[in-house]
Amino acid sequence: MATTRSKQRSSKLDLAARAAWLYYIADNTQEEIATKLDVSRQAAQRLVALAVSEKLIKFRLDHPLSDCIALAEALRDKFELSTCEVVPSSADGSRNGIAVSAAAHLETYLLAKTPTIVAFSSGKTLRAMVEQIPSMNQPQHKIVSIIGNMAHYGRAGRHEVVIHLSERTGAEAYPVPTPVIASSIKERKLLQTQQSFITIKSLVNQAKVTFVGIGDIGWNAPLHESGFINDQEITELMELGAVGEVAGWAYDQHGTLLKKGTNTRIAGVPLEQPVQRLTIGVAGGLHKKEALFAALRGKLINGLITDEAVAKSILQMALVN
After folding, report:
1. I want to staple 213 with a disulfide (CB 3.0 to 4.6 A). Which of 123, 124, 137, 287 is the partner?
2. Number of domains in the chain
3. pTM for this predicted structure
4. 101 and 130 housed in the same domain
């Protein structure tokens, strides 16, 4: 019975994909689609809608938006960025626009024939970016993590990037074999002497580009919500003046990495400050404006993909700081 339902669904998705291709690529009307697929006009309309809802097709806008371009140029000039993209803000707080823009940028590296190393942190927005990458076969590349993906007691994070992207692209995956934050400094030092960690650190240092999420620091912030740090640790970070984090590394309003708190036990790859390799921050939402502004001030990132509202807020903050 389950097999029959699976075959029926597959057949319907095949038909939806044909309808979407005829509509979006071949520029057919719904009446023409109905005739070619031998279905009613209403059925043709539903098939096209199904293709969209099942994400069988991806939308990319070729016409540049002048306001977003102006904001990106202003950010690039102000913070001496190597690259900057600004997308229209979403009224519902969706990350889709940022994810689509970041995926388009990432694809330029993944489609290269020359073997390339690309590094990543983790998080919801980066995971959404990966969801926008089409399936491909690029085994010549290496995809490397700069952050562990579990709490020190073993619970795995839900927004891992490297393994998921490897499955979509066929590239070799190199996840960091440690928790995000070790239970002690002694444990962190021991974990970082393992050959697997040394290999990954070497690959990260050779990466052509690194994509990182930017997290805010506060109650139920990404590190806290994911269980990587507990109530006491997030409270300590706030008392130390932390406003944001990159790959678990907390920093203050000036973008300076903290020398205390959980930073002493980060088991991932150390960050550069100021960053030397291309490192693109991928994040949006006004709740992250202080974290993004500080990361730019502290030169923890030299590339940015964000939304219009955040871009405007960062530029306003730059005028008074």
Report:
1. 123
2. 2
3. 0.82
4. yes
